[in-house]
Design brief:
The protein is an alpha+beta fold and 564 residues long. The chain has three domains: 223 residues, no CATH class; 183 residues, Oxidoreductase, molybdopterin-binding domain (Sulfite Oxidase, Chain A, domain 2), CATH 3.90.420; 107 residues, Immunoglobulin-like, CATH 2.60.40.650. 38% of the residues lie in helices and 21% in strands. Strands 2-1-10-5-6 form a five-stranded mixed beta sheet. Strands 3, 4, 7, 8 and 9 form a five-stranded antiparallel beta sheet that branches. It has a five-stranded mixed beta sheet with strand order 12-19-18-14-15, with no helix packed on it. Strand 14 and strand 15 form a beta hairpin. Helix 1 crosses helix 4 and helix 1 packs parallel to helix 8. The N and C termini lie far apart (99 Å). Bound molecules: the ligand Nc1nc2c(c(=O)[nH]1)N[C@H]1C(S)=C(S)[C@@H](COP(=O)(O)O)O[C@H]1N2 and molybdenum atom.
């Protein structure tokens, strides 16, 4: 009898040792899932660097020169891959340690994992260019890894507890000798804690092996899902890099028809007033794409079909070989609030859609063209806007560059006078000539109007709302009534008369224009309001309308506090 307690101690010691391996596995599984999802998120968000690469880059920055030299000597041009591999291996070891630590001294394992993820976040934050979005992947990795470690450790602890309980029961059963047989619950030996091989056939409760198996399945699944996520992330960012490289190598052909030069008087020199032609980097971006669609121009083609006499397909090379035309056109989002920034103006290079549609020969009963992007988004454009003499184009260039990826590379539509959601399809691959009564576009199914002509509008850009010193100042902004043109812009201060403003030289009827008014600002609280009148006499209404279903209306008004 005296040997029994020491046997139990020996068993629990062995159990603790064996427990280290599964606890390490829990740590590795948790880290793999966290890092994998973090890498995938980084690829999706197209942040400057994946957390792992950022840690590697930080190490390069921090490493003393001799270490860099040794690494280059050892690995040559593969030094970067070697570094990433090193980061990954160190991460796995630390993760295993965290798992063991979590089992022995919770919550220190989770704290360790959290610390490692924090290093990733810091590493990402040291990269340039850095945007706050870049911290999402490491933070996601942290949350996932910590929660997974907590879950796996709990599963493991439950399994171990069950096994200990069982071995206690069997120790008692052994102690009772033959009496155990009578209870019908004895097991052959005390080995259930040892794993699936334990002779637990006679047990009424679920065998301990089930708990352990469950733990192994969960941690294995974390590891595999994490590895798949990391691999997909790597493949996705490799795809991004490939398309970026293709884009950077493109030299667009010169325009057969150049845009008229922007008149010198189109741009007022007023601090705080944005340029009349919007640089690509400042151009607003709106789309439903979680990750920018990757479209390689070499594989790109556009198919024109539906209610047409001849189906037409055009490839990238064929499109570039056509006489391309330049045009400056303002693009605006239907979701732009009064005074908002979802509007921009660019120099586009492209081929007239009316020419392509002429080739296809639309049938008389067609009244709409449904354009579709590579990611399945659709827009419904009245066919008239694509066949009349306006500059509705299949664009390949924006401000002298190939389209930026987020603005539709390699090919998008630009149609003067229509909101983007019914006309400006980015990454366009398909035009179906059809009818409004046959098919709905993406936003039409979500409460927006089927047709979306841009409404007349105006905006105050300076002074920005807030405080101002009394005395002479300039009020300035933009106005637009695309495809018609602007006749006048007026400003009203408080309850005064509407005052005419000075208009900058218009680039064309399809672009916005700048306006300004000199004002001797008296001290006090003032409201400043603006309204535009179009070339055909339409005065911008002061009736407020929401952006849904077809664009906001109302006068833009700012409050300024003028101090003496
Ligand atoms: N493929 C695709 N094209 C799209 C969209 C989209 O979600 N997917 N959004 C449209 C909308 S609502 C607008 S306002 C314009 C914005 O173009 P930009 O992002 O180049 O400014 O793109 C249009 N083209
Ligand atoms: Mo939009």
């Amino acid at each position: 009898m005296s040997s029994e307690p020491s046997l139990a101690v020996a068993q629990s010691r062995r159990g603790r040792l064996r427990g280290a391996a599964p606890a390490g596995l829990a740590g590795i599984g948790a880290a793999a899932l966290g890092v994998g999802l973090g890498e995938l998120a980084a690829a999706f968000l197209q942040t400057t660097a994946s957390p792992i690469v950022a840690v590697g880059a930080l190490l390069i920055d921090l490493a003393p020169p001799w270490a860099k030299d040794t690494a280059i000597a050892l690995f040559g041009t593969a030094d970067k891959i070697a570094l990433i591999a090193l980061v990954a291996v160190v991460l796995l070891v630390v993760a295993a340690v965290a798992g063991v630590l979590e089992r022995a001294r919770p919550p220190w394992g989770r704290v360790l994992i959290g610390l490692i993820a924090a290093i990733g976040a810091v590493a990402v934050a040291t990269r340039t260019p850095f945007s706050p979005l870049d911290t999402v992947p490491p933070l996601l990795a942290m949350v996932v890894a910590v929660l997974t470690l907590q879950f796996l450790s709990k599963t493991l602890a439950d399994a171990e507890q069950r096994a200990r309980q069982r071995s206690r029961e069997s120790a008692v059963a052994v102690g009772r000798g033959s009496a155990a047989g009578a209870t019908g619950r004895a097991t052959g030996n005390g080995s259930e804690a040892e794993g699936p091989a334990g002779a637990d056939v006679e047990s009424a409760a679920p065998p301990a092996g089930v708990d352990r198996r469950r733990f192994l399945i969960y941690s294995g699944a974390s590891l595999i899902v994490g590895a798949i996520a990391a691999a997909s992330g790597a493949a996705l960012s490799a795809g991004t890099r490939a398309v970026t490289a293709v884009r950077e190598a493109i030299a667009l052909p010169a325009a057969a028809v150049k845009a008229a030069a922007v008149p010198a008087g189109a741009q007022f020199d007023i601090p705080g007033l944005p340029p009349v032609v919007t640089p690509n980097a400042d151009f607003y971006r709106i789309d439903t794409a979680l990750s920018v669609p990757l479209v390689n121009p070499e594989g790109w083609s556009l198919r024109i079909h539906g209610l047409v006499d001849n189906e037409v397909t055009i490839t990238w090379d064929e499109l570039l070989a056509l006489p391309l035309e330049e045009s400056i056109t303002t693009l605006m989002c239907v979701s732009n609030e009064v005074g908002g920034g979802l509007i921009g103006n660019a120099l586009w290079l492209g081929y007239p859609l009316r020419e392509l549609l002429k080739r296809a020969g639309p049938q008389a009963d067609a009244d709409m063209v449904l354009s579709k992007s590579a990611d399945g988004w659709t827009a419904s454009t009245p066919i008239g806007a694509l066949t009349d003499d306006r500059n509705a184009i299949l664009a390949v260039g924006m401000n002298g560059q190939p389209l930026p990826a987020e603005h539709g590379f390699p090919v998008r539509m630009v149609v003067p006078g229509l909101y983007g959601y019914v006309s400006a399809t980015k990454w366009v691959v398909d035009l179906e000539v059809t009818r409004f009564d046959r098919v709905n576009a993406y936003w039409t199914d979500r409460g927006w109007s089927a047709e979306g002509p841009i409404k007349i509008g105006s905006r105050i850009d300076v002074p920005s709302a807030g405080s101002l010193n009394a005395g002479p100042t300039t009020i300035a902004g933009f106005a637009w009534q695309q495809h018609t043109g602007i006749e006048a812009v007026e400003v009203q201060i408080d309850d005064g008369e509407w005052m005419p403003t000075e208009l900058a030289a218009p680039i064309s009827d399809d672009t916005w224009l700048q306006w300004k008014l000199d004002w001797d600002a008296p001290a006090g609280e003032h409201s400043v309001r603006v309204r535009a009148t179009s070339s055909d006499g339409e005065v911008q209404t002061d009736a407020r309308a929401n952006v849904v279903p077809d664009g906001a209306t109302g006068h833009h008004e700012i409050k300024v506090n003028v101090t003496a």
